[in-house]
Write a structure and sequence with these properties.
Helix content is 40%, strand content 20%. It is α/β, with parallel strands linked by helices. The strands form 3 sheets. Strands 3-4-5-6-7-8-9-10 form an 8-stranded parallel β-barrel, surrounded by 5 helices. Helix 1 runs parallel beside helix 8, helix 5 crosses helix 6 and helix 6 packs parallel to helix 7. Bound molecules: iron/sulfur cluster.
C-alpha cells in the first residue's frame, strides 16, 4: 500500500491516513448564484468532501466569494491560462487552487510558487493529456511524457519546500491514466487525485471511471477521486462512493445485494429491490455498512447472499427472510414488504442499543 504524505488545509485533510476523499465539480451556470448554492447543498448531502469550481473570469471570482461564505465544503478554484487570475483569487482569500500545466505558462510558475508558499495555498497540479497544444499520445509514451512534465512542474515546489501539493495525471484513455499514475507513484509520496477525464456519461462514463480508478485504488494508489460524468454532479459523488464501497475502502449507507435473476426467479427482483431501497432510505445513515439482499429464489438466494445482514428470497407462494444465510422466517408473498419494514426497524433498534 502506497503511503502518501499528509496534507492539511483548515479542517480538511488528505493523504497520510485520511480516508480516500470523494470530490466533484460545480456544473451550474456562473450567472446563477442560487443554482450554485443549491448544487453545493446537494453535493454536501451526497457526501462530497471537496468541490472544484471553474474560475474563468473575474465574474466567476465574485461568485466564488459569495459561495465560500455560504458553504462549509472546501472549495477549490480551477484555473486555466491566467496566472493573474490565480493571484487575484488568492488576494481574495482563496486557499485551494488547481493549475493546469497544459495551458499555464511555465515561466509564471516561479512567481506563483512563492505566492502559494507565502499564503499556505493547497495546490493541485492537474495534468490533462488533452490540454497540451499538441495532445499527448495514448499509451506508455503519453504516460511517460505526462509524468515528465509533472516532475518538471514539481521542481519549484520542492525547491521552495512548499509541500501543500496534490498531483493528478489524467487522460480520457484508461490505460494511459493507469500507467501514468503507476509510474509517478512508484517514487513519489505526493497525494494523488484520480479520475478519468472526459469519461462520458451514464453507463459508459461510469464503467470507464470505475475501471480506471478501481485498478489504481486496488493497487493502493490514490488519495482523492473524482468520477467525471456528463450528468448531475451528485451522480459523480454517488458513483465515487460505490467504487470505494465495492473495494471495501469506505462505507457509506446501506449496501444492497441483488441477484441478476434467471428462470428460477419467483419474485420480480427489480421491483422488490426498488421498494426495499425506498423503505431503507431513511435508515441509510444509522445503518451504514449493513448489507440487504433481494434474491429471486429460495433455492440459491440465501446461500448466494449469505453475507447479507438481512435478506429476502422468493418462493412459490411465500418469501423467505434470512440473516447471514440462515432462514429466520417464511411469510406469505403479499406480507413480504410489511415484514421487511418490521425487520428493518428491529435492526435499527439493535444498532442503537449497541
Ligand atoms: S438467486 Fe435464484 S433466481 Fe436469482 S440468479 Fe440465483 S438462481 Fe437465479
Amino acid at each position: 500500500m502506497r503511503k502518501s504524505r499528509l496534507i492539511k488545509a483548515g479542517n480538511f485533510s488528505l493523504g497520510g491516513n485520511s480516508p480516500v476523499r470523494v470530490e466533484s465539480m460545480l456544473k451550474s451556470s456562473l450567472d446563477d448564484v442560487d443554482s450554485n448554492l443549491k448544487e453545493l447543498k446537494e453535493l454536501e448531502r451526497a457526501g462530497c468532501e471537496l468541490v472544484r469550481m471553474a474560475i474563468p473570469s473575474r465574474k466567476a471570482l465574485k461568485v466564488y466569494e459569495i459561495l465560500q461564505k455560504e458553504t462549509s465544503l472546501p472549495l477549490m478554484g480551477d484555473f486555466h491560462f491566467s496566472s493573474l487570475l490565480v493571484k487575484e483569487a488568492i488576494e481574495k482569500g482563496m486557499k485551494m487552487v488547481r493549475i493546469n500545466p497544459g495551458n499555464l505558462r511555465e515561466s509564471s510558475l516561479k512567481d506563483l510558487v512563492s505566492i502559494f508558499k507565502r499564503n499556505e495555498i493547497l495546490v493541485r497540479i492537474g495534468i490533462n493529456a488533452a490540454s497540451f497544444p499538441n495532445p499527448l499520445p495514448p499509451g506508455e509514451e503519453g504516460a511517460k511524457e505526462m509524468v515528465k512534465i509533472l516532475r518538471e512542474w514539481l521542481k519549484p515546489f520542492d525547491k521552495s519546500s512548499h509541500s501543500l501539493v496534490i498531483c493528478s495525471l489524467k487522460s480520457s484513455d484508461v490505460k494511459t491514466t493507469v500507467l501514468a499514475n503507476q509510474i509517478f507513484s512508484a517514487d513519489s509520496d505526493y497525494p494523488l487525485h484520480l479520475g478519468i477525464t472526459e469519461a462520458g456519461g451514464g453507463l459508459e462514463g461510469t464503467i470507464k471511471s470505475s475501471v480506471g480508478i478501481g485498478i489504481l485504488l486496488w493497487q493502493g494508489i490514490g488519495d482523492t477521486i473524482r468520477v467525471s460524468l456528463t450528468g448531475p454532479s451528485t451522480d459523480e459523488v454517488k458513483v465515487g462512493y460505490e467504487i470505494l464501497k465495492s473495494l471495501g475502502i469506505r462505507k457509506r449507507g446501506i449496501e444492497f445485494i441483488s441477484c441478476p435473476t434467471c428462470g428460477r426467479a419467483r419474485i420480480n427482483v427489480e421491483e422488490i429491490l426498488a421498494k426495499v431501497k425506498e423503505i431503507s432510505q431513511p435508515y441509510a445513515k444509522e445503518l451504514t455498512g449493513l448489507k440487504i439482499a433481494v434474491m429471486g429464489c429460495e433455492v440459491n438466494g440465501p446461500g448466494e447472499a449469505k453475507e447479507a445482514n438481512l435478506g429476502l428470497a422468493g418462493g412459490k407462494a411465500y418469501a423467505l427472510f434470512f440473516k447471514k444465510g440462515k432462514i429466520i422466517q417464511k411469510v406469505k408473498k403479499e406480507k413480504m414488504i410489511d415484514i421487511f419494514k418490521e425487520e428493518l426497524k428491529k435492526l435499527s433498534k439493535e444498532r442503537k442499543s449497541c
